[in-house]
Design a protein that fits this description.
Blueprint lengths: L10 E5 L12 E4 L2 E15 L3 E11 L5 E12 L1
């Protein structure tokens, strides 16, 4: 989701249409031995600088077979 045009303090929604694969996974969560991939959710970028990106997110993750989880009030920092 990071690219030109993204703005701080704007909420971005993410949904994968039915029967479509997440070809550009933006979040992978490892739960025990099975990785779970983001299938929907929202992210808010709090800070964009040339050295750091910070934000918060809520997302639903799944292995698209039988495992599902929900992450609420997640946060991230990416040092560039």
């Amino acid at each position: 989701m990071i690219g030109t045009g993204n703005q701080a303090e704007v909420e971005y929604q993410r949904e994968i249409p039915a029967n479509e694969t997440n070809k550009n996974a933006n979040l992978i969560y490892k739960q025990q031995y099975s990785p779970l991939i983001a299938k929907s959710g929202k992210v808010r970028f709090i800070m964009f600088t040339n050295k750091k990106i910070e934000g918060i997110f809520d997302t639903q993750v799944s292995d698209f077979i039988n495992a599902n989880a929900e992450i609420q009030s997640g946060s991230f920092t990416v040092n560039l």
